[in-house]
């Protein structure tokens, strides 16, 4: 490692290729082994062996080359959970292009911002995708997102939903390209530090940040953590429910399992569609051994009742995992008992888009430790993780503080795309040369870590990461909204839900139809995951003397709690006014808007 704080570079001078390490290395020993057992929402099924995947990746690499893509170019991928998503990512990696996958639930506006920031030369998408039995028209979203972008040379369209589409001069069909593509594509020998991908994620300010990951360090982190955490064996059938549009899907679907030549199930649709038994049916059908999902999904399954999972054969399971948000101890126990039948360890993995791979987790493939329901246990080898106070001093055991990582690690982000200064200020300015993730935590007297949620203005809605600033500017972009404040409040299933407080512009009056119009607007500018659970119109937002919105106060009000410390508020009248407005609106607008 070269540590030029706060920039870490791994295996400098070494050369490799991610697609080679994931595919070529298995061709002698595992060519006929299934790499992907794919299941579509509408029960379509496909099996791709390691050889099939290798052939497809080689051909698509050549297809990209034929479109003029070369080393260092950015390629935006906006695809649903189909094998072609993994094929496209590995084809980029093979020729040294940097992929930037955008979750297919994001709107044209969110997508446009990301395409503009990365200056992607090529966009890869599908005509449509299936979600809860309906077709989502992805190609139309792309057409809107790239309007006027001359730097976009081509759009490649996979015919997934087989719906009619309008072809523009820049458009190419996936199948046509593949038909004329050569079979073999030599992988580029890339520097270990070569940027493998950009993945946009939400922070506390403005637009999403482009987290940039490298190759050698990142893959080392994935290879080792996949082995230690999931204790992967050649006979395993692994199933991670994360969408590749988020980091879990990058690290532990698209790359980690393939580095190990593992067999995995990939599923396209909603986890409870068409019935709440869908996941258990999949586990039974493919004899899944290793299941990795989110606390939100588990809370939902738990609500459906034990009878559903109990009527399926889940005996193939040997290891369970969770990621993305804190898991409530009672949900952990339910997972352990009802799904794992008290024989499967649960790996609660704490990490972030920025960390590349897991940082805190039990490691069944490496050691035996006693699990504690709700704790992500301890750091992976080599990491110095601590809980500190404002000044950076470690707090005594059982005391709440900020989680920090005190040394660099292989999967650490290289930087933020095109913005080294922001990278320094977001992660490395609170404490000198110490990485600040933005989470609250407690370390108990046995050295186990307990995660207590975000310490900043980042929300985790059903495990999806969204920034309040991003949501607020989304609301303000509606013609009627003058000011907006967003906060998250605890939600029984989603962990957290969005509550918005809006001040209307002169000439607009709060009505039910305006409320619906604003909700549709935010869904359109960000995506359906940004749908608020409640929206209140207020005449004024509570602010501190320095003009900062008192989110904590809004949060207490939205939760119906008494107001906490308001001493920093401008004046008593402001508190009274907002509280009165809130009480009044609570009466008239208390209906859940979902
Ligand atoms: C939260 C997801 C508690 C945390 C991989 C972190 C968790 C944020 C856990 C990163 C966990 C992730 N227990 N909280 N096991 N895993 N988080 O970038 O707040 O989407 O900072 O990465 O998710 O979210 P991101």
Write up what this structure looks like.
The chain is an alpha/beta fold. It folds into two domains: 2-104 and 120-441, ANL, N-terminal domain (Rossmann fold, 3-Layer(aba) Sandwich); 457-593, 2-Layer Sandwich (GMP Synthetase, Chain A, domain 3), CATH 3.30.300.30. The chain contains 17 helices and 30 strands. The strands form nine sheets. The protein has a seven-stranded mixed β-sheet, sandwiched between helices. A five-stranded parallel β-sheet has the order 7-6-8-11-12, sandwiched between helices. Strand 9 (129-131) and strand 10 form a beta hairpin. Helix 2 crosses helix 3 (83-95), helix 4 crosses helix 5 and helix 7 (216-230) packs across helix 8. The longest helix has 18 residues, at 572-589. The radius of gyration is 24 Å and the shape is globular. Mean pLDDT is 94; it is low at 588-594. It binds 5'-O-[(S)-ethoxy(hydroxy)phosphoryl]adenosine. Residues 201, 246-248, 323-326, 348-353, 376, 437-439, 451, 454, 460, 465 line the site of 5'-O-[(S)-ethoxy(hydroxy)phosphoryl]adenosine.
Brief description of this entry?
The chain is of the alpha/beta class and 594 residues long.
The overall pLDDT average reads 94
Bin the helical content: 25-40%
Which structural class fits the helix and strand makeup? alpha/beta
What fraction of residues sit in β-strands? Answer: 15-25%
CATH class type of the largest domain: Alpha Beta
Number of helices, counting only DSSP H or I runs of 4 residues or more: 17
CATH-level-2 architecture of the largest domain? 3-Layer(aba) Sandwich
Shape: globular
CATH topology of the largest domain: Rossmann fold
| N/C terminus separation | 49 Å
- Largest sheet entry: 7 strands, mixed
E-strand count? 30
| Total domains | 2
Cα-atom radius of gyration: 24 Å
Low-confidence stretches: 588-594
Strands of the widest sheet, in order across it, are: 5-4-17-16-18-19-20
The CATH superfamily of the largest domain turns out to be: ANL, N-terminal domain
| Bound ions, cofactors and other small molecules, one mention each | 5'-O-[(S)-ethoxy(hydroxy)phosphoryl]adenosine
